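Customer escalation, tier 2.

The customer says the design service returned an amino acid string that "doesn't look like it belongs to this structure." They asked us to rerun it and document both sides in this ticket. The original structure tokens are below, unchanged.
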């Protein structure tokens, strides 16, 4: 038993006998978690409330505990956390990641990423007996634009990854106090920022976790700011090529006409993205010179924007772990642009701008008027590189995680305009370069066609937690996983979830069934 778990088991209630006695839910409200039980500096943790959660359709009888980890510095906001303790415990725990700029308490009560609304959707982790927990990342705010916490160095460090460790340790103490033992298995699951936090768990705190599920992980904190900023400039700067909603619809229709059937079936999903890239390019849709009606073609400015998206963007200088470029983005795979890169309400209404402005103004410059377009990136070199080293989850050193027997599942959508598939593929390739043939026992990587950043033409649903748990417990990854679509219009259609670089190709039969496809590699 490691030191943390030993310390957790030594915790006692205020005024209670040192001998362990399993508490009821309500008595956890008196629990104080000592600073020595948390592996990074703090003043310990206190419980704000502990009460039985009423049974719901997908939630069994559960003790719901909410507390806060107190920082050493008086100016640093606490890390608010929640731990859910099912009365019928399976001896395992699941740490949920956050999203965006965090700031919102992750309650861990409901579905994890990839558990969409399909008839056979995987059961809630609590219903399976997992204790679950999450946090607010170390500050309280609104998502996605509130980054004022970034002016407090320790709050920024919590967001950059330290909250993962502090939350884990506090949760283990609560779990051990309630059940009389620490979890025998510890898993992490998250998407986007939560995927970043999952990679933080594997890279920095690998001995704490038996398995991690990282969906579309936003691991390249700084490179994404640079890429999003450049794309925003190409869309909304001088001579920008922002596509109207109608033009976006035209583009998607043209791409689907050219590429949908390249995988053997016209089903509204582009699975063979490599063949698509060789079939259609933005320039092939260029408007005729002097055309008065440009509704069914692309202007030169629109082509420049799309071509930039298709370009691997070089960083102004190497970032943490040698990252020097990012991209391309899947602009010609039928992604959703509105709300992400583009908005009918202008650039300030996009996710790109909301996140970038928060980081630039609060993490880098402390200037409420700073704009990406006018940043002196060379002058900010030291500040930006320090933030990259603090925040980016791009290390391929998973030695502690691997030595602990850790297993990593990475899931990416082919149409993700926030975290480009190429960036995730680059990271997995670098893991392969480090670990060689051992990678198959450490990481499994899946790219789902038609899936974006938690949404898309194919809303991925599959039992990733069950797959991870079986892999950890047996050493064998479940064969032939099946992806189901959670979108209302196409609910329950299936295709095989193919391990990269394979993609699902139609072989004949009912196109709604996974058995009608085979995973093939070009």
């Amino acid at each position: 038993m490691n030191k943390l778990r030993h310390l957790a088991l030594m915790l006692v209630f205020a005024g209670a006998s040192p001998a362990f006695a399993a508490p009821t839910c309500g008595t956890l409200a008196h629990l104080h978690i000592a600073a020595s039980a948390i592996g990074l500096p703090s003043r310990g943790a206190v419980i704000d409330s502990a009460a039985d959660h009423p049974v719901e359709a997908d939630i069994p009888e559960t003790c719901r505990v909410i507390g806060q980890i107190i920082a050493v510095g008086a100016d640093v906001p606490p890390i608010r956390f929640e731990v859910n303790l099912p009365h019928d415990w399976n001896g395992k725990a699941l740490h949920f990641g956050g999203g965006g700029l965090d700031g919102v308490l992750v309650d861990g009560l409901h579905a994890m990423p990839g558990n969409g609304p399909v008839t056979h959707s995987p059961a809630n982790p609590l219903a399976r007996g997992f204790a679950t927990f999450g946090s607010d990342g170390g500050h309280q705010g609104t998502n996605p634009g509130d980054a004022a916490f970034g002016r407090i160095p320790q709050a920024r460090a919590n967001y950059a990854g330290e909250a993962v460790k502090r939350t884990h340790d506090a949760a283990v103490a609560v779990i051990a106090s309630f059940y009389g033992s620490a979890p025998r298995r510890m898993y992490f699951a998250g998407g986007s920022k939560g995927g970043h936090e999952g990679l933080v768990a594997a890279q920095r705190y690998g001995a704490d976790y038996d398995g991690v599920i990282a969906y579309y992980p936003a691991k390249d904190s700084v490179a994404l700011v640079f890429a999003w900023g450049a794309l925003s400039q190409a869309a909304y700067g001088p001579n920008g090529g922002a596509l109207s909603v109608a033009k976006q619809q035209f583009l998607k229709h043209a791409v689907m006409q050219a590429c949908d059937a390249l995988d053997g079936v016209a089903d509204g999903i582009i699975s063979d993205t490599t063949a698509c890239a060789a079939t259609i390019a933005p320039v092939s849709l260029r408007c005729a010179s002097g055309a008065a009606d440009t509704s069914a073609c692309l202007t030169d400015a629109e082509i420049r924007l799309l071509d930039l998206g298709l370009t691997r963007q070089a960083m102004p200088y190497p970032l943490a772990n040698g990252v020097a470029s990012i991209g391309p983005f899947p602009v010609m795979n039928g992604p959703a642009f509105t709300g992400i890169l583009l908005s009918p309400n202008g650039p300030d209404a996009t996710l790109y701008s909301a996140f970038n402005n928060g980081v630039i103004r609060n993490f880098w410059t402390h200037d409420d008027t700073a704009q990406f377009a006018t940043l002196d990136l060379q002058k900010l070199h030291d500040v930006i590189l320090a933030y990259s080293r603090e925040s980016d989850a791009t290390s391929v050193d998973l030695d502690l995680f691997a030595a602990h027997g850790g297993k990593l599942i990475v899931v990416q959508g082919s149409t993700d305009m926030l975290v480009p598939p190429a960036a995730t593929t680059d990271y997995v390739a670098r893991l392969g370069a480090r670990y060689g043939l051992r990678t198959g026992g450490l990481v499994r990587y899946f790219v789902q066609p038609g899936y974006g950043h938690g949404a898309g033409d194919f809303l991925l649903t599959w039992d990733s937690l069950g797959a991870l748990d079986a892999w950890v417990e047996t050493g064998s990854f479940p064969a032939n996983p099946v992806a189901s679509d959670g979108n209302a219009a196409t609910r329950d259609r299936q295709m095989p979830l193919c391990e990269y670089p394979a993609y699902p190709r139609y072989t004949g039969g009912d196109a709604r069934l996974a058995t009608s496809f085979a995973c093939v590699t070009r």
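Tier 2 assessment: The sequence is consistent with the input. Residues 223-391 form one domain. Confidence is low (pLDDT under 50) at residues 1-20. Sent an explanation to the customer and offered a walkthrough call.
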